[in-house]
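Q: what does this look like with zinc ion bound?
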Amino acid sequence: MTSGSFPPPQPSATAGTALSAFEGTGQTAGLLADRLLPTAAEALDRRSADRADPEFLGQLVRQPGTLAVLYSQRRAAHDGGHLAFLPARSLPAEWLEGLVVYLGRLPQERTTAHAAPGSDIVLVVLDEPVEPVSAVMSEPAGEGAGLLPEETNWAGFRESGPGLDLVEAGILLEATAIANWHASHPRCPRCGAPTQVIQSGWVRQCPEDGSEHFPRTDPAIIVTVVGPGDRVLLATGARMRSTMFSTLAGFVEPGESLEQAVAREVLEEVGVRVTECQYLGSQPWPFPASLMLGFTARTLDEVAEPDGTEVLRARWFTRDELAAAAGSGEIDLPSRLSISRALIERWFGGPITALEAAAQ
Ligand SMILES: [Zn+2]
């Protein structure tokens, strides 16, 4: 495959980044248990049957207790480093006449500190980010500006993710994914007519031919390759900085199984033939629309040869070698927000953060 279709690189690590909210949750993300990935236990109830009702969303946004997350130009409104949850019914009518999507209901038992348990959450997509009144100063404040806390700032998952709790992280990933899809799929793929949003934001329908179009997610595999001596194979992608070593990854092609995609990508990128392929867990990565499917695979090959286009360097590490290289600052590892880091640390047997922090 070409480098242009490669999934966007996952964020690089800031050594010593505190991600305490992601640690020790005791929840499961497939076999990447106890790791940072937003998981089933933290998921919103998306109320699929309810949201199909044409009246559902219009009624919901007028009810007390319904909370809105604002999103614009790939960023969400935050307040003090957390998602800003605003009472939906206090929003300007013109905002609610634009793109509004039902995201789901917060769980009762485990929730974010920043919204009441059981709250319904809607996504309100704005053309332009709105600044709070205090930040507008001499310019006339836009409608709704007075609703926003003074500390409001607009940020994407890569910027704010480290400070979010699991519930907020899941909400922001869902919001990002569905907003990206709407932004890139305004027209009917059959006839080109502008489509209309139905089912509380989860379907677009063509007014000309009645066809319905559903949000799209692009599966991509990501894999730790483990070779002779229990060494792991990490690589530097063409779009990564030269010190970064990460897992191999690539999109699943039409007509291909996940296992075939793993074998093909690893062979294409580093010339290594993998045998056993085990699924470990997944992570939504909506930049713009990927779902990362994490695997580990084994190989008997000793030699890895980068293809020189997608992968520039490939290197085997023992655990001691990886600890030393990361600890000395010789190499960088992927961010703890990423499934690639979770995969590496599963092979490693524990967190590597302490080693990086010690190198500072
Ligand atoms: Zn059409």
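Confidence is low (pLDDT under 50) at residues 1-6, 13-29. The radius of gyration is 22 Å.
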